[in-house]
Design goal:
Layout: H1 3-32, H2 38-45, H3 49-53, H4 55-73, H5 79-95, H6 103-120, H7 122-132, H8 137-166, H9 168-189, H10 213-216, E1 218-219, H11 222-225, H12 229-244, H13 251-257, H14 262-290, H15 292-311, H16 317-327, H17 329-346, H18 351-366, H19 369-380, H20 384-409, E2 414-415, H21 417-436
Antiparallel strand pairs: 1-2
Amino acid sequence: MSEISTRQKLYPWLVVLACGMMACGSIGLCTIIMGSFYVPVSESLGVEESSVAFYMTIVCLGQAVGMPLAGRLVPKMNIAVHLTLINALQAAAVVVMALYGQVWMWYLSGAIIGVCMGFNTSVGLAIILGNWFSKKTGFAIGMAWAISSVINAIMSPVMTAIIQAVGWRIAYVFLGLFAAALMCLPTLCIIRLYPSQKGLLPYGHGEPDALEGEEALRGVSFRAAVPSVAFCLLILAMALIVMTTVTNQLFPTYAVSVGFTPAIGSMMVSAAFVCDIAFNPLIGWTCDKFGADKGVLMWTGVTILSFVVLSLSSASPVLACIGAGLNDSMYAVFGTGIAMLSLAMFGKKDYAKIYSLVPALGYLLGMFGLPILTKIYEVTGGFLSVWMVCLACDVVIALCVIFGMKLAQRMDHEPDPQALAEFRAGQSQAGVQHDAQ
């Protein structure tokens, strides 16, 4: 096998690994692992834990601002320069937390981190990997998120131990520097916007079931997509997904409410976390194999099943953990499934700009899910009503997918000249290198 063909097969998967590292350094270390700091920081400052945790709300608002910007700017970026600078800024916003003494300072860092996450998480990954894969795109996106989850699982207890050993201030420095390494090294050395910039073609080019050339680059224009009913249904589905994926934060409360020990609540969260590693690539694979709409519908069905199991689990810790694990399927739909569904509905022409609005508007409309579901629990005195409301939301999500896809297929799909030119450039350059072999 020639050197060019070996690189053609292997380098795209190296990009997947690099994207997973970047996602972990961004959303993993700066949000999930950051939860380990809430208690020690609040005790040190003498404030309520909720005041420090409000940092996450600011991060979400920052993402809602950053994602639409990323949709317009990432397709024009020099990844090695521009995205590396964004990643470095985000890491710096973590390191300086070691110097903070007032809660509002965390909010300032949260805003910076959130905007940066708009570029280097879901939107950025979908754009980059969409360019690198003509085949197995969903699986590639899912694998990137799975890699991120594996690193997060390792780092969570490690960071807790570091905080206990050296204190939260030094731990922030370590966290920021580690995040910088995970985010900046991949963009400096591995990730590029197009395979043509590495003298390669998208993965799967030339294979019978791969979408490529002008047909693969067709899509609905941004101006036509955004006012459409199909887009509105996609946004409604995303908002309901955001609203109902906060359930893992409620598992500890649920466990105590039905008489389980707090340890069972923690096991439920762990079950969801472990399943997240497997579900992301599985959802990507089903979207590739059966189509994005059918794949999302299948996994929405798994989520509905999870709420049925949870509804029956009040006397069984085993059922509770099984239901919690199955429930993580919607988190994977959030990260992988919706990216693929957006691509299937509106195509590649203005995909970056269109898709960037989906999670952004979804965050804004669905961010009140936790207080709403908590209020339902408080008013009704139990979680059965919470699970039934979430199940009803999943049914609405499924209907949005079915009708949104049908309406989107009726819209005009045109080729994107810039992306087509990049594809032809890569095809020509790869051909020249192949002849040189």
